[in-house]
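Mods, move this if it's the wrong board.
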Amino acid sequence: MSAPRKLLIVSPRFPPTNAADVHRVRTSLAHYRSFGWEATVLAVDAATAEGGDDRLLAEALPPEIRVVRVQAWSEAKCRRFGFGQLAYRSLLPLYRAGCRLLKRERHDLILFSTTVFLCFALGPLWKRRFGCAIVYDFHDPWYCGSRQVPQASVPGNLTKYRVDQLLAKYLEKFALRSAAHLFSVSAFYVKALVERYPWLGADKFTVLPFGAAASDYAFARERGVKHNVFPPGGPSRHWVSAGAIVPAMYPVLAEFLASLGRLRLENPVATACLRLNFVGSDYAASDRAYKRVEPIAGAYGVGDLIEEDARRIPYFEAIALYQASDAILLIGSTEADYTASKLMTCVLSKKPILALFNRGSLVAEIAAQFPNVFLATFSETPTEPAFRVQVANGIEWLLAPDFDPASIDALVKPWSAEELTRRQCAIFDRVSAPAARSVPSPMAVSRAR
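Not the wrong board. Structure tokens:
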């Protein structure tokens, strides 16, 4: 048997840092070697990274995986000069550490899997210097192009966001010139990038959702992880939502709350024991998090049914919360390109799920395949009468769900972390093969001209 090929994964936010963009890599690490690849992760030390500190998330990593951690520049010191984002603070430390590693050990391929997009610009530099194939993984858009992002959805300061987008306009093109392949969680991101850079071609993209890791539930059970959202037992039925509620979700959330309010008026007995727990509803750090659901719920007459804690909870506590719940709520965005990374994790709970999404999203396509998911969709806007009827029917179904939990295991297999890692590695094999790497890059061709 031949020795495994070497894969360097650049994932600045990495366990024990708890962030949404770690889970592709985290769930794949246990499977890379079985498909012929030995992975090393290049990450920022949690003490200087952004995101919650989740030690149990780090303990769940495969022990044989090597993680090279670098210290990002001090956030407090950088803010004196007008910037504090991890992307800027970590770029040079990541570059230097990557150069040392790549100079010492030959790597066949580098995978950038993160929403810290600025580090994508390191790809061309390392490819030119060390000859590695480069693959990028888009969890979100980097440069939004002509698409107008509502000011309420802008992360942080508007002026800084505009500067970030100006840099992204040029650095995205610079980075993607070196791409051997690109992964994306949304076909809409692929469409936007192909339209912007026709020389990429659709054949360079693979749409991959985040995989299902049944081992996460096994780990939570073995460690006896508990949640602190509501006490065990008691007469209440708890429907839970764990994750951020952003402005693009408000219209969808409003339709759900309105349907719940109408049901309460028509059948107060059905909702008497309901408690809806929203956890981690704000992306901000715990000391800056504020409630996003309770202020809306009051307008629909269901404020007293809502219990919200805007602070993020550790990942395995969220797993324990799903296991203890009576049902799970997945609130989608008005945008078709939104993909809920937690979909498969929720499906694996085998709890009844009400999923509310734009019909064009990948998550809607996948969710429709599972018997424990009641899917309500809209085409253009959540105010569509047909969507309102579906939401009402979905709430009624959550009150008396009917499905076979035993059938879920077989249905999950095509979306398992192992299968999606196999698909990654098949692409790695192809784009890092000597024949593929001997083809001149678009950058080299343009220079020759």
